[in-house]
Amino acid sequence: MMSEIATYHDLKDASVFITGGGSGIGASLTEGFLRQGAKVAFVQRSDSSEFVEEMFDKTGNRPLFIKCDITDTAALQGAVEQAGAAHGPVTVLVNNAANDKRHSTLEVDEEFWDWSMAINLKAYFFAAQAVLPQMKQAGGGSIINFSSISYMMGNAGYPAYVTANSGINGMSRALAREFGPDRIRVNALAPGWVLTQKQKDLWVTPEGLAAHLDRQCLKDTLDPDDIVGGVLFLASKASRMMTGQAMVIDGGVVVTG
What we know:
Layout: E1 15-19, H1 24-35, E2 39-44, H2 49-59, E3 64-67, H3 73-87, E4 92-95, H4 110-138, E5 141-146, H5 150-153, H6 159-179, E6 184-191, H7 197-202, H8 206-215, H9 225-235, E7 246-249
Helix pairs in contact: 1-9, 3-4, 4-6
């Protein structure tokens, strides 16, 4: 399926930085950009050395893995600097890493709330802040912030996560306005229920999946590869006049506009 994705010639040799680029949707994004000929750096909390070699074997293009916990702002800023030093100024940032741990309101304490915001919202802001000087130096860039349709659906079961995803949408619009004069575009991308291995291991049940598919216009399940094409489009100059928007890839559950 990945081989059927369109080629964006302007992404060849582009300096791309992806958070959580070694697993789940992020791993598919890393592969997608590598197949475009981009220079990809990604951060992941767990060791991704084997994944790096797998990507090199599959694409002939070796990504730069930087071990980093994105809730450590100084480490995240340092990783962005390292990526820029290795590949040239970062011109594409994909804020992909997130954690949708299930919880109810009454069990949330201040520590959990702060942890959830640190992963799902704060890190996005500081990654965007960190790439700003590099994108200015390069004459422009594209920031893609992963949100979720959870806030559009008003889903229960993870209120802190839903709150953060709504915040990502607002932040993307605010940064699009601020960064626009420097030809830096900022868009949000809201996937539906993508069946990553983590989702299958922890939360997918036959009944739950059937109910969700019933809400979709398209009755196929979403896989990580289904998100790649939209991200490549937002990263490339094919979308050069698109900013401050939220793109939804969910099989037709929610509507925008």
